[in-house]
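User: Good morning. I'm curious how magnesium ion would be positioned relative to this chain. Could you predict the structure with it bound?
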Amino acid sequence: TSKDSGKNKFSVFDQEMNRYQLRRMSLEKDLRKALARSEFMVVYQPKWDSLMNVTVGLEALLRWKHPDHGIISPAEFIPIAEETGLIVPITYWMLQDVCVQNMSWHKDQIANVPVSINMSARMFENGSLYDVVSEALASSGLEPHFLELEITESIAMNNMEETVAQLSKLRDIGVRVSLDDFGTGFSSLGNLDEIPVNTLKIDQVFIRKSKMHSKKAIISNIIAIASNLNMEVVAEGVETPEQIELLQSLGCRVMQGFYYGRPMPVNELGQWFIENTA
Ligand code: C2E
Ligand code: MG
Ligand code: MG
Ligand code: MG
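Assistant: Good morning! Here's the predicted structure, ligand included:
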């Protein structure tokens, strides 16, 4: 009867919720031990100058190698890390790891490009970002302009005064800043010129194959805004030659996406740079 099926649906939903909550709770518990157990790994995705055909930067992306569940996507564990505050020590570890890694690519003359790290809102809450970044640069010996922080519009707009103050101090010593997922954050454009930003990263939703032609006007205007504000532009999520052609025709030359390179572990990047450096 309809009454029974209604009841069944409810209990299936209940079970789903329960399973979701159980996984969430168990991941949270494991996440608290993951740093100490060295379960995090950094992978690097190239940013590619499509006219010069060279790698012009890398984005560092976090991977969690869970002992039972295998590799867990950042889409699943970053929100947990943010809610619990664990993202702060994790990002401190990552800053250190990435600076040391990039410095060793320089020393070994393997690569000379900036590496970016994604920032959560939490990183701007306790006022210590400047000190932590300076320490990672000093102890690794990496020059500040080889480090880039990726922030989102919502981070920038939330508590704008404080965020801008901290970013400005970092920019003053040469650290680069990019605005990630640009165009999806409903930011007020009126403030964009007040945030110290080197680069706008056009979000993948505009670049997606099925959407791209209908989003041409938006993409073109993001490129114009960047150019008028003296910012560079990077297109995210580039997967096909058609996307590259259209982006180039709109004046965008730097791209990041599976077409050029997937995020790679350190041991694959040596070979990558041999094959993809001018
Ligand atoms: P994001 O910063 O916008 O990073 C780009 C994401 O798009 C990465 O996913 C990357 O693998 C993926 N991607 C790159 N090219 C393509 C493409 O051509 N097609 C498609 N479909 N996807 C592409 P990933 O590594 O799974 O990271 C997802 C998000 O998780 C990141 O988005 C970022 O917001 C967050 N995240 C990753 N690592 C960190 C981290 O260390 N700290 C913080 N706070 N967030 C992180
Ligand atoms: Mg990013
Ligand atoms: Mg992005
Ligand atoms: Mg994103």
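Residues 181 surround magnesium ion (ligand 4) (CB under 6 Å). The beta strands are 40-49, 54-66, 70-72, 115-118, 147-152, 176-182, 199-202, 232-236, 254-256.
Let me know if you'd like a different ligand tried.
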